[in-house]
Amino acid sequence: MVARFRLLGNVEAQLGGVTVDLGHPKQRAVLAALLMEANHPVSADRLIDHVWGERGPKRGRQTLYNYISRLRAALRAVDDEVRLDRCSGGYLLAVDEHAVDVHEFRSLVAQARRVHDDHQVLELFEQALQLWRSEPLSDLDTPWASALRDALDNERLAAELDYVDAALRCDRHTELLSSLSTRAMQYPLDERISGQLMLALYRSGRQADALECYQGLRRQLAGELGTDPGPAVQRLHRQILTADPSLTVLPAPSALAPVGGVVPRQLPAAVPHLVGRRRELSALTAEVDSGAGSGTVVITSVGGGAGIGKTALAVHWAHRVRDRFPDGQLYVNLRGFDPKKQAMDPAEAVRGFLNALGVTPQHIPLSPDAQVALYRSLMDRKRILVVLDNARDAQQVRPLLPGTAGAVVVVTSRNQMSGLIAMDGAHPISLDVLSEDEARELLVRRIGPRRVAGEPQAVKQIIAQCARLPLALTIVATRASQTGFPLTTLAAELASASRRLDVLTTGDPASEVRAVFSWSYAALTPPAARLFRLLGLHPGPDVSATVAASLAALSPHHVRKLLAELTDASLLIEHASGRYAFHDLLRDYAVEQTNSTDSDQERHAAVHRVLDHYLYSAHSAARILEPARDPHPLPPPQPGVHPEDPADHEQALTWFATERVALLAAVGHAAAAGFDTHTWRLAHVLAAFLDRRGHWQDLAVVGNAAVAAADRVGDLLGRPIAHRIVARAHRRHSSFDDAYFHLRHALDLFTQAGNLIGQADTHIDLARVRVQQGPRFFPEILPLACRAHTLYRSLGHRLGEAQALTAIGWSHDRLGDHAQALTCCQQALPLLEEFDDLEGQTYAWATIASTHHQLSNHFRAVTSYQRALDLCRGFADRYMEADILNRLGDTHQAAHAPDAAHDAWQHALDILTELDHPHAAQIRVKLASLTSGLPEASYPAGGQ
User: Fold this and answer.
1) Which of 285, 802, 824, 936 could cross-link 831 (Cys pair, CB 3.0–4.6 Å)?
2) Do the beta carbons of residue 435 and residue 468 sit within 8 Å?
3) Domain OmpR/PhoB-type: where (predicted)?
4) By percentage, how much of the chain surpasses pLDDT 90?
């Protein structure tokens, strides 16, 4: 896959369309500076100046080196061909300049200014301008970035003006009027822009408006600068006054009607404010280019959900390329999803095309087959564009396909047109919602940059509440223009999900969000419609096929067919293999439908099933991650639930990572819907994963929800478990007093309930907190660990005994009895290995390593820490990995191995920075204190 670097907007790197994490803004600024001077050396001083300006940090070079090191790692993940190397002049980023949007923009503009064919000029300028997503380097705020932004904006404006000149030469004045009027208001003193607008107005038959435009320019120049317009604009003014014939552009000879035929021009007016869609527009053009000379008809199918902008895209692109089709353009709305009219019969569409091609009614054959034959005969070898809008299915489209090469067909449909793709060779293009930058640009074009810039927070809320759907955003922009209401008022109206679809109404069913959705919904089979409704009850952002099966109480095989139907109807998207989602407005519509169609009992049962699915699946995965956990058997799930059962540790981690957001949403949904037992049980089975992966804020949220839920129902088991979860979160946030308080409360509750395993587990947790609280609490840890060991042994809980024995070992280590610490951990290891307890083994080996470190046996300490690291990475506890790396670095430093210490600490720092953990500051201090003058250590062979 080819890496792409984007500076014309946020600083981004993408691989196969997936955005790569480039770190924080300062680190991205380093990359931006290197990309702007790709393949040329950039000195460290210049980089520091570009990133920090005059107020650079005290250790600017060291900080820069750290950024360079991280960027190297990130770039290696993007593309092996991209290299960031140290050179004599500083740093050099070796990259294909065509993969960097700013260099590609400049290259395309330079090409456009060299060629003489205006149509080719337009294509090159369009490709260049499509690379712009928003303000360049929009996520960077430094003097260098601001200056570069201004320079690049000037380059863009110059390219846009050159483009307009070429477009006017190609007689595209009508489609330019809207953008030229906006630009003239933005630059009221620019004579070139005013001249372009005057010419476009005149050629559109608006001579008076063109003359008034000139007078407005003259007044502005006189008032602001005390001058008159220049000679070029004055000459254009005189030509307009006298209706100079040279101002009228005649069609090129190739655009004239062919002998004996009619040239149809059926395209509807283009949408004046099409935003974004650069990739899709380029793909449409690329399909035409690649199909030229292939001997076949080029067919492209544009698919996407209601209100996504399929027609706008197709018509906009058709106007852009119409000069490539001298034999004309045909257009028909096939009404595939019209709520009031039946889908158009293909025979009716063929007759319409025959009329457009100049066939009189009396010469149209009676037989539909004969009509299709005549249509294809007339289309033979013609360079003609056919736009089939709003098609229902492939059967409706096929009779309208030309039979020979030369023609290009664009089909738009809410269905995915799989049959057309498979059987007729159509090339699919799928539209998604706009990006946030594109959504903001749509609002800017509709209501003006001043209003958008004046209420940034409201704009952000509107974009989110409209789910970045073009139709919804257009409705809000229209309402803002018509009412003049502050954007904060409109954002507040949209904030209520229950009212959102009411706000997005226009009185015109064709442009009302709810009505447009209903057209697709009405076309579903009853089972698919039921599944769509129930998916509105799912708490998470997306859903797997297995979860959907449990939600609807259907077999996974059956539900996959229904999901395919919903996907084909563009009511769902399969955004990842086997995972489905719809945007928030469609979710609102699904909720409306289930509330009006399904009974309270049906909706309650569906929610119960989906919560059961997540609880039982997470329970199975958690048993794999924590084999020593108290089993706490669950009651049987509801009928129709299909829990997932990961087979091994890797599958369990993958399942949790994939479903994490949905599981968190399920906890909140369960609490809100009165499923209190599900709430604390879900939090319990989630806790280990959230802890190990560093999701400690999430851990605190589900823990607090569990405490409240267990208290509401007075659950004797759930209450202490919930307090242990909260304590776990406090411990990770270094709030040790709070952690100790919750653990003492949990211990009291376990004791009241007579739960010995819970008491033993909590004693070990208390010992860990006391260790982290520091040396003055060390005398308490050994009695706590011993009490846990006694309790486990009384229950015959062999794995618990081994874990407690390890705790006794690290208690002795903290108290200075290193020989006893080694003995305890070495005794525990065989049992921990027997039960495949990776976490327990990691604690044991880390304690053995710590003991060897205290005894200055550095070689054994290093090998033991490495063993602990290998085990830790097996169960993916990020904080524990960082802690072991930190201590490994201490051992390397004690052994006078500064390079090895640096590597270990740097790796620990990367993890802690990723986790946003306060201990990262301690690692930075250690790295800063390292000296490079000490020789690399040579560990004695006898140390083994």
Assistant:
1) 802
2) yes
3) 1-95
4) 30
